[in-house]
């Protein structure tokens, strides 16, 4: 009898132990999500949401694959300044310039803003005004990664759109500069709770897209940065004959439009475009991570997805906070008064016209 009790106790202990292992594995594998966001947020209010976004973006990228980079960067610039609240999408108003007018945002693509508004119109047509512009931007970035060849992954949704935008100084303070060393970038991103692995993984977004000469010309003028590969430097000088030329070049010389781990291979070959990229292979805290991502694309994808899900939840507005904009470029209140002004103007014109006859 005692033997069978001991046996039962052993079996149940083993079962309990394996249960806790599974639970704790699941807990460490699935990313934490902030209160108010959910993996199934629009399941009832807009079940077609993700297919509308993907279908439209497939069409857009079939015409021009380079637009993936513009949309990915837009989400980053939204999230880092004042949180992922769609504030970067707002146009300036009479009360002042918008985030878009701050220097780091001047090179965001006009077409990216337009694509977000096109998506918004398509979604509103099918579901009504239920999906925020901040969520549309997050989904567009997610699909850009996948449709450029990167990993496919779920993101939590339920963000609301902000009612204000950040000042020029706040924008500058929150987006680190391309001439920053790894020390600068690590310190800057640590304030948002990103560790060295997150920093190296997020920088891997530079596997697609372009940059304008002024973003890296401090490496060419007045003196060549000695960490630059010789041939790479020569070609950059051909693209940028002076420090202020507005020409552009690709961020990843191996596969500029493909989301893969070649950006890290570039760094190993001293062909990273920005100081903030190349220095990740100099700094001892990040060098090993760069090497591991260059050797193992799956590892890069895994860490990139984790860091993106984290980035996509920075200071989000949820619940009753903010609003769901009916035009991603304008706050609803401003939009109403803008529409009214247009209507009033038309009525006035018509009245003037009828006076003339
Ligand atoms: C870690 C610090 C970062 C710095 C210093 C930085 C800086 C820059 C700069 C200066 C440009 C080029 C602007 C131009 O001259 O046109 C650029 C482009 C780009 N960045 Fe970053 N970035 C950083 C992180 C990120 C992150 C986290 C993402 C996304 C997750 C990202 C995605 C992109 C993309 C996709 C482009 C190409 C945009 C296009 O082709 O339109 N960057 N970045």
Automatic annotation (TrEMBL):
Where is substrate annotated to bind? 176
**Any idea which residues are catalytic in this one?**
77 (proton acceptor)
Record's signal peptide: 1-26
GO terms under biological process: hydrogen peroxide catabolic process; response to oxidative stress
Class of this enzyme: oxidoreductase
Q: Which InterPro entries match?
A: Haem_peroxidase (IPR002016), Haem_peroxidase_sf (IPR010255), Peroxidase_pln (IPR000823), Peroxidases_AS (IPR019794), Peroxidases_heam-ligand_BS (IPR019793), Secretory_peroxidase (IPR033905)
A GO cellular component annotation here is: extracellular region
**Binding residues annotated for heme b, in chain numbering:** 206
Where in or outside the cell it occurs: the entry states: Secreted
> What keywords tag this UniProt record?
Calcium, Disulfide bond, Glycoprotein, Heme, Hydrogen peroxide, Iron, Metal-binding, Oxidoreductase, Peroxidase, Secreted, Signal
Q: Recorded GO terms, molecular function? A: heme binding; lactoperoxidase activity; metal ion binding
User: Where is the major localization of this protein?
Assistant: secreted
Q: How is the cofactor bound?
A: Binds 1 heme b (iron(II)-protoporphyrin IX) group per subunit.
Q: Which residues of this UniProt protein bind Ca(2+) 2?
A: 207, 252, 255, 260
The chain positions of domain Plant heme peroxidase family profile read: 36-332
Key word Secreted present in the record? yes
Q: Which Pfam families match?
A: peroxidase
Catalysed reactions, semicolon-separated: 2 a phenolic donor + H2O2 = 2 a phenolic radical donor + 2 H2O
Tell me the cofactors it needs.
heme b; Ca(2+)
Please list the residues that bind Ca(2+) 1: 78, 81, 83, 85, 87, 99
Secreted is among the record's keywords: yes
Query: Which pairs of positions does the record mark as disulfide bonds?
Result: 46-127, 79-84, 133-328, 213-240
EC id: 1.11.1.7
What role is this protein assigned?
Removal of H(2)O(2), oxidation of toxic reductants, biosynthesis and degradation of lignin, suberization, auxin catabolism, response to environmental stresses such as wounding, pathogen attack and oxidative stress. These functions might be dependent on each isozyme/isoform in each plant tissue.
UniProt lists the family membership as follows:
Belongs to the peroxidase family. Classical plant (class III) peroxidase subfamily. Belongs to the peroxidase family. Ascorbate peroxidase subfamily.
Protein name, as recorded:
Peroxidase
Q: Which organism is it from?
A: Quillaja saponaria (Soap bark tree)
